Amino acid sequence: MAVSQIKLIVGLGNIGAKYQGTRHNCGCDLLFALADTYRISMNEEKRFFGILGRGNVAGCEVRLAFPTTLMNLSGQCVGALCTFYRIAPQEVLVLHDEMDLPPGSIRLKFGGGLAGHNGLKSIASSLGGQQDFYRLRIGIGKDAKRDTINFVLGRPAPAERALIAEAGAHALEGIALLMTKGPERAASFINSFKPSGFAEV
């Protein structure tokens, strides 16, 4: 099978100290962990509306981007980068929080619905309505007693944070597989992950 041709990895979140460590910032947290792992320098480039880096992930050249607009306008950054560097939608991987998965769960998918995620909606719009890009979904769960905005902009409890961190470490290995072995191998590795202490019912 052909190796994945990912050219751009985008981590979604909101910029600013008040958003650090929130559930909605799981995507950009993973992006910066990826940059640290592969020693990729990240710097703000205002013409692309984001904090960007360029380097090698598992031996494959790729660009990293954290949009510095509001989450709902993330497409401004992605659209500008894809236009300037001629990156196709299928060469994009977006890292984002996912309420439909519990903390400690991660999934790699290509295309499909946007699950009401405004950052993904903005990116799809910037790509001419195309939804055919890769997403790495990082589970944050739901709380029926809290409204969605307050929940995603809140910080996870220590136990939840530990689950998200463990899933994130596994996701870093999965991203390396995506770059070197392709999406099928990466999806099998990522989607089968279960955090330590997980028991089958």
From TrEMBL:
* Domain of life of the native organism: Bacteria
Q: Where is this site: Stabilizes the basic form of H active site to accept a proton?
A: D97
EC number(s) given by UniProt: 3.1.1.29
Please name the GO terms of the biological process aspect recorded for this protein, alphabetically.
protein quality control for misfolded or incompletely synthesized proteins; rescue of stalled ribosome
Annotated tRNA binding lies at: Y19, N72, N118
Q: Which UniProt keywords apply?
A: Cytoplasm, Hydrolase, RNA-binding, tRNA-binding
Which residues are responsible for catalysis? H24 (proton acceptor)
Q: Which reaction does it catalyse?
A: an N-acyl-L-alpha-aminoacyl-tRNA + H2O = an N-acyl-L-amino acid + a tRNA + H(+)
Q: Which InterPro entries match?
A: Pept_tRNA_hydro, Pept_tRNA_hydro_CS, Pept_tRNA_hydro_sf
Q: Which Pfam families match?
A: Pept_tRNA_hydro
Question: What family is reported?
Answer: Belongs to the PTH family.
The UniProt function text for this chain reads: Catalyzes the release of premature peptidyl moieties from peptidyl-tRNA molecules trapped in stalled 50S ribosomal subunits, and thus maintains levels of free tRNAs and 50S ribosomes. Hydrolyzes ribosome-free peptidyl-tRNAs (with 1 or more amino acids incorporated), which drop off the ribosome during protein synthesis, or as a result of ribosome stalling.
Query: Know the name of this protein?
Result: Peptidyl-tRNA hydrolase
Q: What is the species of this protein?
A: Candidatus Anaerobiospirillum merdipullorum
Q: Which gene encodes it?
A: pth
